[in-house]
Specification:
By secondary structure, the chain is of the alpha+beta class. The chain is 20% helix and 22% strand. A hairpin with a 7-residue loop joins strand 5 and strand 6.
């Protein structure tokens, strides 16, 4: 289990033009603040916990939860795994601590035999999926998260996204659905001009191309396994 760091906070915005559309990044946790309601839904900002600090906002006694117990819906009780915090900084992920908080508060809760408990929230045609755990750690954690296209037409008509955003989410989801299988037919219709990150590579694709191409090393890929199994020779060490 990766070490835990500060949980979902209020430093990520989801309004049009925010960094979430291109590259969701994290910053040093700031003092929590209230935001205006987002598209008519009241927004109650979660607390931000520093790494290693205990949550003192609840007087509930510690209990041993089991895998069948539904997870709590208070974002302020969750910390982020190192794995997920790394994802927040990758181009084309479209996830942020704000969307994680919204999914925990308002998303549909489902059990998956592979991942465990998932929160899923659809906004502007895009589904945000957040996987959480609170049975193997001292406090609840956000394990991972991703985006899917729930309604392509709704996403394309929403001011929050543009066509490149929607195609990026489509290609990334298709690559992940069956990592070992080449998917040229699902890549070919897409137009992704802004590189998104998978493994060490920064990928783009043009309409008609049955592959994604790394903008750094020039390699072409048709499956996620091919991408993650090859080092990028065009990137400097440490980048």
């Amino acid at each position: 289990m990766a070490s835990r760091q500060g949980g979902p906070g209020a430093d990520e915005a989801s309004e049009p033009g925010s960094t979430e559309r291109r590259t969701a990044t994290t910053t040093t946790p700031a003092t929590p603040r209230r935001r205006p309601a987002d598209r008519g839904v009241p927004s109650v900002e979660p607390r931000i916990r520093e790494p290693g600090t205990a949550d003192r906002s609840s007087d509930r006694p510690p209990t041993r939860r089991t895998a069948t117990d539904p997870p709590v819906r208070d974002p302020g009780l969750y910390a982020l795994t190192d794995h997920f915090r790394d994802r927040l900084q990758q181009p084309g992920r479209y996830v942020s601590t704000r969307t994680v908080s919204d999914a925990i508060r308002r998303g549909q809760l489902r059990w998956n035999r592979t991942d465990g408990w998932r929160f899923a929230l659809v906004e502007a045609g895009i589904r945000f999926v957040v996987v959480v755990s609170d049975t193997e750690t001292e406090s609840p954690v956000v394990v991972t998260g991703w985006t899917e296209v729930a309604d392509r037409e709704a996403a394309l008509s929403a001011p929050r996204w543009d066509a490149v955003d929607v195609d990026t989410i489509s290609v990334r989801a298709a690559l992940s659905e069956s990592a070992t299988t080449p998917i040229p037919d699902q890549i070919r219709p897409r137009d992704v001009s802004r590189p998104f990150a998978v493994g060490e590579h920064r990928l783009t694709t043009a309409p008609g191309d049955p592959f994604v191409r790394c903008s750094a090393c020039g390699c072409r890929f048709r499956s996620k396994e091919a991408i993650t199994s090859r080092r990028c020779s065009g990137r400097s060490p440490g980048r």
